[in-house]
Amino acid sequence: MNDQPIDTLSGAALAGLACACPRCGKGKLFQGFLTVRPHCNVCGLDYGFADAGDGPAVFIMFIAGLIVVGAALVTEIVYQPPYWVHAALWLPLILIVTLGPLRPMKGLMIALQFHHRAAEGRLTGREH
């Protein structure tokens, strides 16, 4: 295990954005494009807690939608290009602004889960 684990929020966030282990910052978090490894290959942290769900995709869709739709509207109002120009411009941009940040955003969400010790909610009996 690493001598000094990451214990700050900024350190965890940077490790997540770098797709590295949220505890040591050195091991790899992913074994595929978005497939999380079973454990860290450096410090041995079990990644069983990691469940980012659809959170990263939702954030990316909102941000990408704002960028692409805003740019398309401005381009249409200012230049009024034919539809094929819109397709040639915005389809590659959509791929870049959605697939590019998806992996670092998922790493960030997992690192934040680890840092804040997030767990599945449990209902407990309430006394009346």
Order of helices and strands: HHH
The backbone outline, from C-alpha atoms, is elongated
Residue share in helices?
A: 40-55%
Total number of helical segments? 3
Which runs of at least 5 residues are low in confidence (pLDDT < 50)? Answer: none
Radius of gyration: 20 Å
- Class based on secondary structure composition and strand pairing: mainly alpha
Overall residue-averaged pLDDT value: 92
Strand elements, count: 0
Characterize the structure shown.
This protein is mainly alpha-helical. The chain is 52% helix and 0% strand. It has three helices and no strands. It has helices spanning 9-17, 55-79, 83-115. Helix 2 (55-79) runs antiparallel to helix 3 (83-115). The longest helix is centred in the C-terminal third of the chain and has 33 residues, at 83-115. The termini are far apart. The model has no long low-confidence stretch (mean pLDDT 92).
Labels describing this entry:
single chain, 128 residues, mainly alpha, 52% helix
What's a concise summary of this model?
By secondary structure, this protein is mostly helical.
Topology of helices and strands:
Elements: H1 9-17, H2 55-79, H3 83-115
